[in-house]
Amino acid sequence: MQRLTTDELADLVHDYSLLLMDCDYLVNHQYKAVADAVATNKQSSDAIEAIFNP
């Protein structure tokens, strides 16, 4: 296994940090709306089902 220099390790940590920030942005700004819509749809489906199947 190759040992990393301090600079290489710092670059790796920096790149990993950027990747985590990108993932956080995607989850919170792109997919959250979709997840909220799915949850609302599920609640609506459950409410309609409760009306027809008491």
List the helices and strands and how they pair.
Layout: H1 6-52
Q: Fraction of residues in helices?
A: over 70%
User: What structural class do helix, strand and pairing data support?
Assistant: mainly alpha
Count of DSSP-assigned helices: 1
Return the average pLDDT rounded to an integer: 84
Low-confidence stretches: none
Q: How far apart are the termini?
A: 64 Å
Shape: rod-shaped
Order of helices and strands: H
Cα gyration radius (Å) = 22 Å
Report strand %. Answer: under 5%
- State the major sheet: none
The number of distinct β-strands equals 0
Describe the 3D structure:
There is one protein chain. By secondary structure, the chain is mostly helical. It is 87% helix and 0% strand. It starts with 5 loop residues before the first helix and ends with a helix. The mean pLDDT is 84.
